[in-house]
Structures are given as C-alpha cells and as structure tokens.
Design brief:
With 449 residues, the chain is of the alpha+beta class. The chain contains 15 helices and 23 strands. The chain starts with 6 loop residues before the first helix and ends with a helix. Bound molecules: glycyl-adenosine-5'-phosphate.
C-alpha cells in the first residue's frame, strides 16, 4: 500500500472520478454490492485481460471456458457447499448488529486484551450488549428455477466459479484432445451472502472471480503447486505491485478448506492488515471424485504412458477481481508536492490504466479544434483515450494523473505550423515533441513495449 493511501481517500476518488459507485445509491444502497463506472469498468477489464493473457494466451497448457452461474443444485451437494459453506453468526441482543463469530474472536485476539478474551466472545464489540449463541449460516444465495417456488425448484447462485470447471472437465478434455497437465481458466461472477461485507470492495456479496483448475497426474501435484505459487506471485510484481506490499503465506492446517491438502495465499498489505488477494490450493482429486460419485459419470483420465486410468489432482489459483482492483489502486495511489500544490497520481501499470492517452488542445481556441480532433481520431483507433478541453492545461494534466493516464498529447499553436504535438509522461512529467505522422509509433513504443 502507498503510505499516502487510505480507504477513505480511495472511496472518494473512486466515486468522484467514476470508478466505483455504491449499488442503487439513490435508494440508499444495498450492503455488499457495488457498481463500476466508466473508468472502473476499464480498469476491471484490464485486470481480467492481463490475467487471461498470462494464464491462457501465453501458455500452451491452459484453455478457457465460461459456465452458467446457476447450475444443477446437486453440484453443490457434491462439492460440499450445501453442508459446509457456512460461517458462524452471532447477533447482539441490544443493538441488533450481526457479526461473524470467528472474525470477532480474531478482532478481540488482535486487541490489547486479546489473550483474555479470545477464548469466548460473549459481548458486542460495538455496544457491549449480550451476544446470542453462534448459529451456522449458509452463505449461498438461494433462488427458484421456473414458475413454481417449491423444494424441487430450488437453485443457488454459484459461490465460486470453480465447480463450473469441474463439471466440464470431461467435455473440455474430449473437445480439445489434450493431455495432462491441462488447465481450464474462467472469469465470472460469484455470489456469497456474507454476514459482514465491508472494507469497501474487499468483501462483497457479488464479485468476480478469476479461477484456474489445473489438472495434473497424482504425484506431480506438489511440484505444480509450487510452480503456480511462483507464477501468480510474479504476476502481481510484473504489474507493478510493490514488493514490500505483497507476500505469499502458507496456510496452517486448521485454516485449510475441507477439500485442500495444502494452500498458499498471495496477500496484500491493506490498511486493515495483510489480507488475501488470491488462494492457490492443492484440491487433490476431491472434486472429480465427488462429481463422479454424485453424477454416476466416469471422470477418470486414461494415462497413455502408463496404461492406467487415474483421477487427476487439481491445483487451483483463485483470485477475486474486486479485491485486486482495490489493491492495485491502493498500491498506485501517490501524492506529491509540485509547485506548491498537491498532485494526486495513480501510478498504475500502463496495461491496467483505464485511459492510456488523453488528447488535450492547449485551449478551446477555434483554430486548435480541428487538428486536436484529428489527433484524437488517430489515437482512439488504437487505445482507450479521452479528449478534454475544459479548464487550464495544468488542471487537465492533474485530472489525468489522478486516474492514472500514462500519456497526455497536447496540441498547441505551434502544431499549426510544425505538424507536431507534445507527449507528456505521467510519472516524470517529461515532455517530448513528436511529429503527428510518427505519433502512433511513439505512443506504441511507450505503451506496448
Ligand atoms: N474456488 C476457491 C475459492 O473460491 P476462496 O478463497 O473462497 O476460494 C477465492 O475465494 C478468491 O475470491 C479470494 O482470494 C478473494 O480474492 C475472492 N473472494 C472470496 N470471497 C470474496 C468476497 N466476499 N468478496 C470479494 N472477493 C472475494
């Protein structure tokens, strides 16, 4: 995290500049749901694209898919979600606030009196009122499919995209005629009725996941697990995250999910402390075995080298787009003094920046409009760009710095004479003059190489 970033500053910037809005805000909002505005959707798409490029496009052992959100409910029985995807919940009898009992223990344990209180939390941390006994609360959103609302029509919004991959394992294997190791990647919505959503977009009730189920031969799983931990950690660094703010942690045995043999987390140093960005789990053969059992289908793989039928093991790197969005913003946020004023900059990696190039005529003077519009037409065929002619040039640079635009192109009165424009770089604020005829090449050199 940048030392200057706070959640409050980020929330305010996100709202003011159209990155993130509270969902249905005009009706008072709804907890745990967020909308992404014009710049937010660009950043979000760029995160997804950077991930897809690294894990699908640039590899020869991973393919993509896109499964439905609502699945046959037996999927959730087989996966264990109906029985185990629950958090303990307590209510305050006085102020009626609701808490996750396990998080409450963590909160109190982290406080000064933790050693006394961690064992059992019976009092509300907000008002001191008495808490109810913990009750298990399943986090899956329920719905009904079809016109009749009865037990037979109950379905669930998926709490993870992963199961859509497991149930398609045999389809993808047959259709692609691939051999192991084979990864299947997917990006899509997931829904969890979190008891306490919060910390801006960190814990939501609706969010996007980017997941890979990487199917390997048993016995090679540990080596592939290490491979994916390194790959995923390095991806964050390649996209400019500061090394001191991102770490890998191996989970303790008592932290593991019911399906996992071993799990590592990539964590980010948020203002609330080190928190999970991505989990990289060794799910063993748990899911394929369960789906084979519940569906009655053969989900084994024939290993031509050994002549044996095997149930593949699975390594699962699983990241949340919204959390990454928040972390990349936190990390990129900076403030510096320039000529007695505070300049707010998002030092986002160029691949992530929502707008790559801003075209700015020096003024609204009539003569400058046609060449400036022509330059914009040239640029926007290649990159997401903006045209801005409102207020002073200094203010317009600041507006672009604040949303992380790596390059500004200024069209001035000299342009009318020399057919050249000025490229201004966000971080260094350096300016270079280039002929319009060479502008696209000059921008490409800075944005794509
Ligand atoms: N398939 C495995 C799985 O879903 P998880 O650790 O529960 O594992 C994976 O979730 C990732 O999804 C997390 O690392 C996080 O980035 C994101 N995620 C999970 N719950 C979330 C929530 N309520 N809001 C936002 N992101 C969430």
């Amino acid at each position: 995290m940048s030392t200057k970033a706070t959640v409050e500053k980020l929330v305010s910037l996100c709202k003011r500049r159209g990155l993130v809005f509270q969902s249905s805000e005009i009706y008072g909002g709804i907890g745990g749901f967020w909308d992404y505005g014009p710049l937010g959707v660009e950043l979000k798409n760029n995160i997804k694209q950077a991930w897809w490029k690294a894990v699908v496009q640039e590899r020869d052992d991973v393919v993509g898919q896109d499964a439905a959100i609502v699945m046959n409910p037996t999927v959730w029985r087989a996966s264990g979600h109906l029985d185990t995807f629950a958090d303990p919940m307590v209510d305050c009898k006085e102020c009626k606030k609701r808490f996750r009992a396990d998080a409450l223990v963590g909160e109190v344990a982290a406080s000064a009196h933790g050693h006394e209180a961690a064992a059992e939390v019976t009092r509300c941390p907000e008002c001191g009122g008495e808490l109810t006994e913990p009750r298990m609360f399943n986090l899956m959103f329920k719905t009904y499919v079809g016109a009749v609302e009865d037990d037979a029509s109950v379905a669930y919004l998926r709490p993870e995209t992963a199961q859509g991959i497991f149930v398609n394992f045999a389809n993808v294997l047959t259709a692609t005629r691939r051999k192991l190791p084979l990864g299947i990647a997917q990006i899509g919505k997931a829904f969890r009725n979190e008891i306490t959503p919060g910390n801006f977009i960190f814990r939501d009730r609706e969010f996007d996941q980017m997941e890979i189920e990487y199917f390997v031969k048993p016995g090679t799983d540990e080596q592939w697990h290490q491979h994916w931990v390194e790959e995923r950690y390095n991806w964050y660094l390649r996209l400019g995250m500061r090394k001191e703010n991102v770490r890998v942690r191996q989970l303790d045995r008592d932290e593991l999910a019911h399906y996992a043999k071993d799990t590592y987390e990539v964590e980010y140093l948020f203002p609330m402390g080190w928190s999970e960005l991505e989990g990289i789990a060794n799910r063993t053969d748990f899911d394929l075995r369960r789906h084979a059992e519940f569906s009655g289908r053969d989900l084994e793989y024939f290993d031509e080298e050994t002549g044996e039928h095997i149930v593949p093991f699975v390594i699962e790197p699983s990241a949340g787009v919204d959390r990454l969005f928040m972390a990349f913003l936190m990390d990129a946020y900076d403030e510096e003094e320039v000529r007695g004023e505070t300049r707010v900059i998002l030092r986002l990696h160029k691949d992530l920046a929502p707008i790559k190039v801003a075209v700015l005529p020096l003024s609204r003077q009539e003569k400058l409009v046609p060449p400036a519009r022509e330059v914009w037409a040239l640029v926007r065929k290649h990159w997401m760009s903006q045209y801005d002619d409102a207020q002073s040039i200094g203010r317009r640079y600041r507006r672009q710095d604040e949303v992380g635009t790596p390059l500004c192109v200024t069209v001035d009165f000299d342009t009318l004479e020399d057919q050249a424009v000025t490229i201004r770089e966000r971080d260094s604020m350096e300016q270079v003059r280039v002929p319009i005829a060479g502008l696209v090449a000059a921008l490409r050199e800075r944005l794509e190489e």
